[in-house]
User: Which sequence fits this backbone?
């Protein structure tokens, strides 16, 4: 069964460092998403991406964050200068289409620990 | 504003019993609903979906019921198993994002 894969499973970084979280969405999907979940809290929407553009983003997704689809298979989330409060699970998701009428399939997540 | 909420933060059931997890929504224009579960340390996982032109949809051991009159959604799990222990969500779907609430944590007692 096709699945969304994320690497690494755990990333440890020092405050102020840049990190790149990687995702390989399901191959025929066109819409891609990033969410985060701080320990013990809700899953929070960060950004959606379609046709090489951001479709929608939340208030959390500030100038420190960026997304990219560098090739035909990968979808990345970059945090330029990590802060302690960026420590969370980051989930990538993909869907066949958008507009809230399609199932989003989630990866297993990357745990980011900022020290 | 629009909201999706769950009636109970936790639900504890005996293994083998049926579970019913409820959800209320406020947007009467919502026409598509999804149930996700999230096991500890994992990402949200699709369980079942239903469109607003249906009242009921069945999957393997799961049934979703939609009552549009009172804007209520429920997920029924038959013969609940330890592997069903998770947090269950009926998120708000809109635009290009999914808004998750706090969910209902299901505990299955052996």
Assistant:
């Amino acid at each position: 069964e096709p699945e969304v894969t994320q690497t690494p499973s755990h990333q440890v970084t020092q405050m102020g460092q840049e990190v790149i979280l990687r995702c390989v969405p399901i191959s025929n999907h066109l819409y891609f998403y990033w969410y985060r979940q701080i320990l013990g809290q809700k899953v929070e929407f960060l950004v959606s991406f379609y046709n090489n553009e951001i479709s929608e983003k939340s208030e959390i997704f500030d100038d420190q964050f960026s997304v990219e689809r560098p090739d035909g298979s990968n979808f990345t989330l970059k945090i330029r200068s990590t802060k302690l409060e960026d420590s969370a699970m980051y989930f990538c998701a993909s869907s066949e289409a958008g507009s809230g009428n399609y199932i989003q399939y989630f990866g297993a997540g990357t745990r980011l620990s900022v020290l | 504003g629009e909201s999706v909420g769950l009636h109970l933060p936790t639900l504890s059931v005996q293994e083998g019993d049926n579970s019913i997890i409820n959800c209320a929504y406020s947007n009467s224009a919502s026409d598509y609903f999804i149930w996700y579960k999230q096991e500890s340390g994992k990402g949200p996982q699709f369980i079942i979906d239903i469109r607003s032109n249906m009242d009921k949809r069945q999957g393997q051991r799961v049934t979703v019921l939609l009552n549009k009159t009172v804007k209520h959604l429920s997920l029924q799990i038959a013969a609940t198993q330890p592997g069903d222990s998770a947090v269950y969500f009926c998120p708000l779907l809109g635009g290009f994002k999914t808004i998750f609430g706090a969910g209902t944590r299901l505990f299955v007692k052996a």
Remarks:
- Chain B has a mean pLDDT of 90.
